[in-house]
Amino acid sequence: MPICKLCKEKEADRKNTHYLTDAIIRSCLNHNGGNIRETGMMFDISNNRNGIQAKFQRSTSAAVVEGTFGRAPTEEEIKQAKVIPYSVDYVFCTGCEDIFTAIEQDFLKQVLPKLRGHDFLGTPELNFDESIIIRRFFLLQVYRTSICDPGFKISNDFQEKLRKLIYSTKPDLDQLASIPLNVIYLNTVGDDFEYTRNTVGIASWDDNSLIIFNDFIIQAFDSIEKVKYVDFLGFNDPKTFAYFTNYQEKQFKFRVIDHETKVKLWKAYSDKKAEQERAFYRRIFINAYMDRYNKFPPVALLEAFVNEIIFGESVSDESRYSIERINKIKEMMLNA
Ligand SMILES: [Zn+2]
User: How far is the CA of 12 from the centre of ligand 1 (A)?
Assistant: First the structure.
């Protein structure tokens, strides 16, 4: 058994360790909300090639992962990806898992109730005295994700710094606050369904790392020199980015994005993705049709193919975007 990544002493005996806190992401990935195709979507930073996450949720279409795999995923890969989102086996030990739980419980009990369930319309900024609790909680997400997710890269120095901070039994605000940390709170108003409009995913590029964490967006930096504004689908604001990047703070600041704005930004993103997705399947069919008939397919047939892939009924979520199903529908329509 491998050695635990946090303590570097004991055997990593724990299975099913969530590297993004389950209590936070669960409501977003809860497909009972009904909006299956929108949920658990991975994302990329469109102008950032290396920012694409190599993982996908069960409802994520082949088009979205194409950038990473260069092809549609196989059924096996889709099954693998959907096992338990954002969790791993045999990376940490039971003792360290208890450390994680304690950090998570502090946040879930003392801070989260002040955020969820409130409407912060007209409140662009929130300040909290619980800086230690907040920082440990969000830096824990960054640390664990950097260990568990190969698509999420931070420097070894930064990772080691985070490891020591999380492992320490005496959390020290000065040390914690030496890490620039920007957290956006995406004001989510309404019932559980509203959380399924949020998303969960990661990106990293250069020295930046970013986690979309349901109603939070986390950006942490190695040092104050490494703080860099990037445009992220309209969520970051160049005018206030530095202001909301906590560093050696007294109170922890969250930037709040109101419900309507958030819904609009995610919708713009998913519309763009949906169009990319259609383009992806069109290309598959056009290529196959040209190969066989040496001419462009009839538009009605082309769109029928795309619609069957994306909206066709009597198919499980697991199989919908598999290369096997795509090929079957393609053959059927080529012979139509
Ligand atoms: Zn350990």
Answer: 7
